[in-house]
Amino acid sequence: MYKKSVVSFLVLFACQLLLAQSSTLTGFPKNFTPQEIGKRLAYHFIDGRHDLYAAKYIHYAEVCTWNGALDYAVNAKDQKLIQLLKDKFEPFFDREKPLLPPMNHVDYNMFGSLALKLYQLTKDERYRKLGLAYADTQWELPAGANKEERAWADKGFSWQTRLWIDDMYMITVVQNEAYKVTGDRKYIDRAAKEMVMYLDELQRPNGLFYHAPDVPYYWGRGDGWMAVGMPDLLSALPKDHKDRPRIMEGYLTMMKSLKKHQQPGGMWNQLINEPDFWPETSGTAMFAYAFIRGIQQGWLNAAEYGPAARKAWMAMIPYIDERNNVTEVCIGTGKKNDKQHYHDRPRNAGDFHGQAPYLWCAAALLGK
Fold first, then answer.
1. CA-wise closest residue to 91 among 50, 41, 34
2. Are 165 and 218 in contact (CB under 8 A)?
3. Is residue 328, in this structure, part of any structural domain at all?
4. Is residue 6 part of a domain?
5. What's the domain range around 86?
6. Number of CB atoms found within 10 A of residue 333's CB
7. Which residues of 106-142 are buried (b: 16+ CB within 10 A; e: fewer)?
8. Does residue 10 fall inside a structural domain?
9. Res. 20: pLDDT tops 60
10. Number of folded domains in the chain?
């Protein structure tokens, strides 16, 4: 009798968790559904021009948006969109080949994640070869490496390490996709080792991250890269991996702090802990994504975090304008030990830094 009661309780508890999740991450009203929002933003991306570094190379923010559009297309089962996203990439094999980023910087190398995602959809070896080249050169020390780069490599880290928090998306995304393609644990081991080191070096006791060790401000999108990088890595990391407990600890600590700093309307501000700063869309979308993934994986309590994730999504959507551009997106921002610097940053409509995480959220809400 006792065992039956325990089993009944566990079944009831599991059903309650599923109900809590389904009631907060589904059933969105018209014009707020992930199907509608993802379609608007993904097809808008198809029609857009490339975003280039200094008019030379594909910008990482475009890669992030492309990845999001692909994830959305797959989860929405939109075969037309998948084909359009493939067609958009095809010129990189011939006339647009000069736009491919060189394999010599953390922001450039993450381009490989896009090719590796496309390989998983198509099994076209051209994507695999291109993507793995970006993943491997992130750890292959070049002949002209400087002293600092050699020091990182000698410790088993990427020579591109620089202890900027956005690295924990840029490095982990390409290594993660390489692991999915090859099954070779060296790729996921690299990503996990790097993540643990960054957590130990940069995470503050409150779970958040300064923009840099010498810049004591909790910049929204900066923290967003960590908030996205951790659940994406944890989703692929083997259950028995030695670094999994440390990364999970860092993730859960950050999520708890983010929930406390969410504004009453559902957004997060340009500086997370500054209530007088303006609501910023890219960081908000990244934090919403981190909540959604955690709820879906069972790492976060659905009853506690589900309403916060839903509130964020509902607050985000009105910031999309009639041209399908996300507004109130902080432009690319270098570190500066000046609070006013963050307050006064220009805001771009349609900036890929904002389009990307909105697509990530739409794709995640359609996934599992």
1. 50
2. no
3. yes
4. no
5. 26-366
6. 17
7. bbbbbbbbbbbbbbeeeeeeebbebbbebbbbbbeee
8. no
9. no
10. 1
Contact between 115 and 85 (Cβ < 8 Å): no
Residue 62 identity (one-letter amino acid): E
Residue 145: inside a domain:
yes
Residue 347, beta-bridge partner list:
330
Which residue type is seen at 119? Y
pLDDT of 337 above 80:
yes
| Alpha-carbon dihedral angle through residues 285, 209, 60, 296, given to the nearest 10 degrees | -40
C-alpha span between 137 and 127 (Å, rounded): 16
- Answer yes or no: is pLDDT of 232 > 70: yes
Q: Which residues pair with 329 in a beta bridge?
A: 348
CB atoms within 10 A of CB 183: 9
Report the Cα 127 to chain-centroid distance in Å: 21
Q: Which two tokens stand for residue 204?
A: 């503050």
CATH number at residue 256: 1.50.10.10
Whole-structure pTM value: 0.93
Q: How confident is the model at residue 21 (pLDDT cuts 50, 70, 90)?
A: very low
Average pLDDT of the chain, as a whole number? 94
> The tokens of 199 are what?
């957590």
